Amino acid sequence: MGKLSGKVGLVTGAGRGIGRGIATALASEGCDLMLTGRQLEPLQSTVAELQLFGIRVLARAGDVAHAPDVDGWFETIRREFGRLDLLVNNAGAFDGGPLEDFPLDAWDRVIATNLRGPFLCTRAAMALMKPQAAGRIINIGSISAQRVRPNSAAYSASKHGLWGLTQVTALEGRDHGITCCCLHPGNILVERRQASDKAEDDEPMLSVAEIAEVALLMAILPPHVEMLEAIVLPVQQAYVGRG
To answer: Is pLDDT at 193 greater than 70 in this prediction?
Structure first.
């Protein structure tokens, strides 16, 4: 039996990249899963891979910032699994540019995906986890929540907000057996970066599997142990004093 056998998890943005990597790591330890994302096809591909671990896995497409979609996901979890032990708020969006030129619709899209979405999912998860007096929520932040770069106003603001949401969730959850932690990745070699010719995508990178290993560590900690925050980045990536 795996370290998460008998547990049920939900991973948002699970069709590719970090979300897919985390879902794979959780499945390898026996966790049954619900996977969500905007597009059904990559989710179905992930499902086919994860079923090889002998777990039960479902996929639902939708928008993490759209409340009816989120409510539908959690109703499916309630109906199909009867409980939720782990929520990974991973779905994310990035758009950049100088503040004076940054479009309002781009700002709204990034904030909606990176902050409104985790709020909606956390709200629904708490409603399931409190009656069972157990659960863990892992928010995928960014080192931009600690050290910002130019031309990243919406992204950096959303990740700062996610770190604040993490702390409030941890406080409100601790009397109910619910922990909440925030994993801040540095540069990760996701599919988008593999296909990119931008200079910043030639910086040192971690693999998806390496960041997923840290998320798994958070997930398998004993219920009385909280890893509130972790910053994980390549040794050679500029971080302290960057700008």
So the answer is: no
